[in-house]
Design goal:
This protein is α+β, with helices and mostly antiparallel strands. The chain is built from three helices and seven strands. 35% of the residues lie in helices and 19% in strands.
């Protein structure tokens, strides 16, 4: 009598193989998704730079901006804030669309917010401002940092504190 189909052992082996492949693939997929979300920071830093350069062309000054929307990024993101204490970004005309997963600032040194709405004189050929983004996309309490300057178009990344 010829048997058709698979035995229970054969099916269990196939299920085990699929489970092992899924255990490998799912974390990699999540890591890929988090890396893709970093494009928000890079795009917004470019926009902040453009806004700062436009403001500087009119006034010969750059505007410092305090951490916005707050000083503590969240994995879920936060609504952009334009209230008191966040006038720097309002004055240069920057506001990202939708919820922001990163917090942004503009200051005189990297990863440091300047006094909100204070100005720094334009000085050709020198780094006058640092635009910084920090985020905690995976919610583990460690931040990823991105920054750019007014003199260099490249956005630099610092994953030393958090590399999902």
């Amino acid at each position: 009598m010829g048997r058709k189909g698979f035995t229970l052992i054969e099916l269990m082996i196939v299920v085990a193989i699929i489970a092992i492949l899924a255990a490998i693939a799912i974390p990699q997929y999540k890591k890929f998704q988090l890396k893709a979300k970093t494009s928000e920071a890079k795009a917004n830093l470019g926009s902040i730079r453009s806004c700062e350069e436009a403001y500087s062309a009119e006034t010969d000054n750059y505007v410092f901006c305090g951490w916005t929307p707050s000083n503590a990024p969240t994995a879920a993101g936060q609504a952009w804030v334009t209230t008191s204490g966040h006038e720097g970004f309002v004055s240069i005309g920057f506001a990202p669309a939708g919820t922001s997963r990163y917090c942004y600032c503009v200051g005189g040194s990297v990863n440091t917010a300047g006094t909100d709405a204070a100005t720094n004189a334009f000085n050709e050929g020198n780094v006058d401002i640092y635009m910084t983004a920090k985020g905690d996309l995976d919610g583990d309490g460690s931040n990823q940092w991105f920054y750019a300057t007014d003199e260099d178009l490249k956005v630099m990344a610092d994953y030393s504190q958090d590399d999902f």
